[in-house]
Amino acid sequence: MATRDSILSILLIAALLLALPGAAQAAPLGDMVTLSIGDARDGSSLAVGGRFGDWGLEAGAIPGDGRYPDALDYPCPHDDYRVVDDDYVPGTYGFDTLRYFDLQPQLAVYLGAGLYFAEHQTMVQSRATGWIYENASTTETDPAFSGGIVYRNDQVGIGLGYHSLRGANLQFLVNF
After folding, report:
1. What is the H or E stretch that residue 16 is in?
2. pLDDT of residue 158
3. For a pLDDT cut of 70, what percent of the chain falls above it?
4. How many CB atoms neighbour CB 102 within 10 A?
5. Quick one: fold of 2-175?
6. Stretch 34-59: mean pLDDT
7. C-alpha span between 131 and 70 (Å, rounded)
8. Cα(121)–Cα(118) distance, rounded to whole angstroms?
9. Domain map of the chain by residue range?
10. CA-CA distance, 28 to 120, in Å (whole number)?
């Protein structure tokens, strides 16, 4: 899965770079602020961003589910424990660069590539006390890609998209 995402991200970045000169496009939609709400595989996702000319930038997050609110953030002090979750991710955060292609005066499609950072934790439960501990932790960087379509009038708009980590999403746009 990670290899497929890496290959797709590289291809998407190459496509974005090839599009730098820009093909003949309709008049640009202009600058706007975006709010994106999505359905990631581990729960909901959220992103805020902006479009500036043909380019955009988004900061996104997939909040953790809060399964271990009382967990101690250090390793279990003894060896008498059981692993309760060997790959718990309390949250994923990152950014995307977007390239917009205006199809009509009010309609555009976009492609994006980005990087997301997540802490992966191994959670254990002490057999002696029952307490939950964060026994080990690693930080990983995951490539991401996205695409979608946006439609708007002079002031507001709506969009639909897909992000490889944040899932399907609905976007709300405001002109500034």
Report:
1. helix 2-18
2. 96
3. 82
4. 19
5. Porin (2.40.160)
6. 92
7. 8
8. 10
9. 2-175
10. 41
